[in-house]
Inverse folding.
């Protein structure tokens, strides 16, 4: 048996128009957040990866992911913290995969291009040691250090971004710096050379 | 080498960059190795902080934000792009399902059992049926097959009891009324088409329209264009 169903095209068009307007508003809101928090995502990625091109890739991917899930984010005030976590997680993943790739390639080929003397000279020796020491830190300490080092971030802001009590952030920061100091103490002489 | 008792206190003081305790300050004033160690520790932590800030505050490339903006997917366009495809897919699935269901409908009723030959009631118009048979007009066959099965209904009953029989679809409860109707049509023995639909039981039911199905017309050669009536007049058929 066939049934006749009355379709109201005007109402459907109105609904579609409203949906389109909502999507446009959402995009506008995201673009505002992008201008505000995009650089932070880049800096977090750059802080982990120490490479501009990789950092740009990772930050872009983090922002795209954030955009796709933006509609489902209930508390838009948490966007900054949410984005930092996405960017940090992606950067850590990228770092690990590039290290795995490096190890694999080293196993298969001993004729890999080594960093040139110019490259090595370009980076200060102490900075290289610091990068290495940072990679060995636990992730939770590394993120606190990174966010604390980004200009304009007070302890309270870092605590807010990470949804942690200020006391926890303080203690993590203290232990992270102490761990770094222990790893780098033998390189104090290089500081004096600089 | 700093004094072992003050070693940890010196590191912690350098790490937190806080004001020194009076006890530590007086010791540093008195102990040169500890003073040197404290300066070294302070330099180390300062170097760590500078290194962290350098790494963390790298300049964002000018092309970064415009690049991200350009790569944001246009949801509106993508959803519009999907909509026609979804409609097409849904229509295709509906057509395939309809074909499959129609092809697999079981023939629940045997044609031979279902068919009943009706003739006009003799008590009402005995001469009409007699005349019709005498003239070789087709008998009317009422089938109880559902009129919702068009492919069954339209098949010509080649092996039916009478090759002259015509299929007319009549719901079982209306067969008697239909037979009376046939009997009341003395002069029209050619083709009878009846479209029967059940009356709506409930007025509040949703409006539904049965697909109009018309049985295939079977055209028979007329034996005589006109036949003479008993009273001598001519009647067109």
């Amino acid at each position: 048996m066939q049934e006749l169903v009355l379709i109201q095209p005007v109402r459907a068009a109105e609904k579609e128009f409203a949906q389109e307007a909502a999507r446009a508003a959402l995009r506008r809101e995201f673009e505002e957040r992008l201008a505000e928090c995009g650089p932070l995502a880049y800096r977090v990625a750059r802080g982990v990866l120490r490479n501009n091109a990789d950092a740009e890739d990772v930050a872009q991917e983090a922002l795209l992911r954030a955009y796709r899930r933006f509609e489902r984010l209930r508390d838009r005030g948490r966007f900054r913290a949410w984005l930092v976590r996405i960017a940090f997680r992606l950067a850590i993943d990228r770092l690990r995969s590039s290290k795995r790739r490096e190890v694999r390639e080293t196993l298969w080929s001993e004729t890999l291009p080594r960093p040139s003397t110019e490259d090595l000279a370009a980076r200060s020796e102490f900075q290289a040691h610091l990068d290495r020491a940072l990679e060995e830190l636990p992730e939770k300490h590394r993120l606190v250090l990174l966010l604390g080092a980004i200009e304009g971030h007070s302890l309270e802001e870092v605590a807010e971004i990470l949804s942690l009590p200020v006391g926890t952030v303080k203690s993590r920061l203290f232990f992270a710096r102490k761990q770094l100091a222990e790893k780098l103490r033998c390189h104090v002489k290089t500081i004096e050379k600089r | 080498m700093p004094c072992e008792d003050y070693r940890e206190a010196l590191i912690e003081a350098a790490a937190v960059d806080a004001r020194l305790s009076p006890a530590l300050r007086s010791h540093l004033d008195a102990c040169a190795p500890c003073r040197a160690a404290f300066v070294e520790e302070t330099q180390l932590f300062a170097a760590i902080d500078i290194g962290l800030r350098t790494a963390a505050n790298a300049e964002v490339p000018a092309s970064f934000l415009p690049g991200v903006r350009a790569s944001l997917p246009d949801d509106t366009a993508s959803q519009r792009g999907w909509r026609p495809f979804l409609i097409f897919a849904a229509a295709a699935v509906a057509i395939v399902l309809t074909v499959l269901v129609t092809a697999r409908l079981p023939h629940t009723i045997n044609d031979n059992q279902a068919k009943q030959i009706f003739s006009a009631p003799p008590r009402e118009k005995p001469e009409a049926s007699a005349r019709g048979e005498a003239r070789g007009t087709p008998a009317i066959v009422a089938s109880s097959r559902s009129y919702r099965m068009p492919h069954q209904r339209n098949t010509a009953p080649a092996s039916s009891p009478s090759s002259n029989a015509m299929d007319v679809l009549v719901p079982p409860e209306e067969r008697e009324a239909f037979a009376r109707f046939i009997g009341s049509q003395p002069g029209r023995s050619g083709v009878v088409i009846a479209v029967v639909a059940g009356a709506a039981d409930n007025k509040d039911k949703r409006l539904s329209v049965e697909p109009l199905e018309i049985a295939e017309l079977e055209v028979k050669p007329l034996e005589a264009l006109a036949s003479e009536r008993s009273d001598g007049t001519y009647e067109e058929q």
About this structure: The beta strands of chain B are 116-118, 140-143, 166-169, 208-209, 226-228, 234-236.
